[in-house]
Description:
alpha+beta; Uridine Diphospho-n-acetylenolpyruvylglucosamine Reductase, domain 3; Enolase-like, domain 1; 2 domains; five-stranded antiparallel β-sheet; four-stranded antiparallel β-sheet
Amino acid sequence: MAEPASLKEALALLDPEDPTIRAVAGGTALMLMMKAGVFQPTRLICLHHIEPQYSRIAVTEVGALHIGAMATLSELEHDPQVAAHFPVLTRAMHRLSNPRVRNVARVGGALAHGDPHMDLPPVLTALRARIAIKSPDNEREIALESLYSGYYETTLDRNEIITAVTVPKSDGRKAAYVKVTARSADDWPSLGVAVSFSIRDGALHEPVVVISAATEKVTRMGAIEKLLQGARPEEAVLNRAGDAAAAEASFLTDAHGSAAYKRELLRVYLGRAVRQAVQQ
C-alpha cells in the first residue's frame, strides 16, 4: 500500500499499462471485489493523505456546487449548502446503502467504480454534473454521463483520477430520484430513475431523464426528453412517456429482477419520478 502525500505523487504511481495498480479512496466496493477474488491488485495507492482541497464541498459565487472527489458520502448528505441548493442529493443519500458505508465511501470512487446499481451517478447526471479528471500530463472535464461506457466500464484511463464534480446552479429546476428495491429501502436498486426540468407556464422545459440499475450503465433517455419537452405533466403524457421509455431502453436480468420486470417498473416509475419532482 502506497500512501502519497499529494495528488501529483499519487498520479505518478499509476501505470497506464498495468491494470492491477489501483488508486483507492474509501475502498468500500474495491474491498468486496478483492474478497470475492474478482480483482487482485499488485499495489493500492491510498488517497487519504492528498491535499485537503480535494475533500471540500462548496457552493460557488455563481451558485454552482463544487464537490471534491475525496468528500465522503456522509459529508455530502449532511452538508447544509447541499440541502439548501440541491435537496434531491440530500434525499437520495438517505437511502444510499447504510451510514457505515456512507461514512467511508467517497464521491469520486462512487462515480469511478462504474457499477450501474449505484445511486449517486444517475442523480448527479440528472443535475447535469460535470467531472474534472487529472492525469500526470493532462486535465480534462467531461459531462458525467460521458464517463460510462458499459457494465463496470468507464472512459477513464488507468493513470487518471477524478478530482471534483461540478453541478451547475439549479435556477429553480425541479428534480427527483426514485429508487425501486426488491428488499430493504437501502438495498441495491432494481431500477433508479432520476429526472430534472424547469417548469414554465405549467409545461416542462429542458428535461433530463436518466435511468440506472435496470441497464448496463447510467443511461440518458434522449427520446423521452424530447417527448416531455414543452409538455404538461398530465397523466396521459406521463403514461406515453413511460411506454416509450420501456420500449427504448435495453434491460438487464440480474439478481435484482428480470429484464421484463424492470421494463414494467420503468413504465410505471418514470411518471412517478416526474410527479414527485413537480411536487418538490
